[in-house]
Amino acid sequence: MGESLHCDLCGKPATVHLTQIIKNQIQKVDLCEECAQSKGVTDPEGFSLADLLSKSFAGPADDAETEALGPTLVCEQCGCSARDFKKSGRLGCAVCYDTLKTILTPLIAGLHKQSRHKGKAPARQWRRLELGREIESLERQLLEAVNQENFETAARCRDQLGVLRAKLAAPAATP
Amino acid sequence: MQILPILDTPAEVVPGGSPSGPIVLSTRIRLARNLRDFPFPGWAKEAQRREIFTRCVEAASGASQMKKAYVLDLAALDNLEKQVLVERHLISRELSNGSAGAGVVISRDQTMSVMINEEDHLRVQVMRPGFQFKRVWKQADTLDNGLEEHLDLAFSAELGYLTACPTNVGTGLRASVMMHLPGLVLASQMEQVIRAVNQLGLAVRGWYGEGSEASGSIFQISNQQTLGESEDDIIKRVTSVLQTIVEQEQNARTKLMDSDSAKLLDKIGRAYGTVRNAHLLTSVEAMNCLSLLRLAADLGLLAETERHRLDRLFIESQPGHVQLAARGSLETQKRDVARARFLREQTAALPALNFDRAFEKN
Q1: How far is CA B250 from CA A129, B30, B238, B239, in A?
Q2: How does pLDDT run across B109-134, given as a tens digit for each residue?
Q3: Which of A64, B83, B123, B252 is the most buried if burial means most Cβ atoms within 10 Å?
């Protein structure tokens, strides 16, 4: 877990973890060896995490980096760009996870334990997704059966489709 | 005042609720969720935010756990009301600063709140006094399922629940525990503890979340990572760190009593004198005094039952609550006068400290 922390300034693995309480405010920062040295973190007297953080984030280096990824990196769904994201730290919509994938993938890998979700899923949506898949496959079977003039199978498929489509169209059950 | 009915109803976590334990004040779980078909709140247009509000209110107030829930449109509340809700942890500071369409649905017993158009469309929160992760998670999970029956959520098989900030993606879960750690603070070990906890991938914050003050020796720990671990595993990890901190706190208290009991008891005695006699009290000083009195209850100097009264006073000494009681906004100095008066009244019936008990226990 400790090794998954990255330097807040350059993104390299962080080895220096600092916490300060100044006027009852907790502040913390993770740094790599070099950044810690160059920022004078080793001198606890003349050093404030708040200064460090405000100076380092949203600095010119960040912009150059974003620019390098191309000004074309914009979510087609909502119009949020890579630069918007770097500035606010927030994405525009769910589709941004796809459209801004090139900058998000390394970021997410650094932030979290692993890059793949392990946990609950929205149950109803999951059921509907599966229902949709079943319907699609039945529709293919139906078409095939009709083409082959296998009307017995076609009729069975059609009946099943009716049941599944009714299920999909049914209003959500009240909890 | 729209929020008065909320404040007058006995609540689970604050006034009138069940008592909490010696070190763990409360357990909280929050889930971040978003609707699939709308931009995230920070990017949504005003009309969209209102539409999101309507849909989410409908889904949340329709959930079986939310019968007779309070539904609040933040735009209809004045600043003082919002502040009071923040001080009760029913809404976040971010929500209280939110623009059009920001709102909250609060369950009757106030253990559950669903914030709408905060950083994410939905922030489901369940909070209970003491250490109760199992119960709190079950409650949050059920409420989440209830919402999902009516709302299409932004979810991907690979990344889980999609959130406005990638720090919450995956489970969208933050499991946190509020702790009272005066022993570690007095022994100057808190920075060390915070560092160790950070290295285990957990965050330590003050009483009112990110960047808030750590006065009153109250801290909350919570998971930082939300992706790649199941909800149960996240909760287990937070629990195991919590147990270690509780042990450390107990050791620190024992050591303080063994090595310099006069110093510790002196602090407690002075805090007792202050809350009962002061005429000017800042919220920081009030918090620190109440913290020492809570420690007194843990050490047996005050009856266990007093702890509950003290927990209530922690919240009611906050600036918003003091002004609410005065029925209007007050400048700082007048607030300090009102707070001191309030605490004198509230602690007038406090029994005398039984200092002998401190030694019996150790």
Answers
A1: 51, 28, 18, 16
A2: 899 999 999 999 999 999 998 899 99
A3: B123
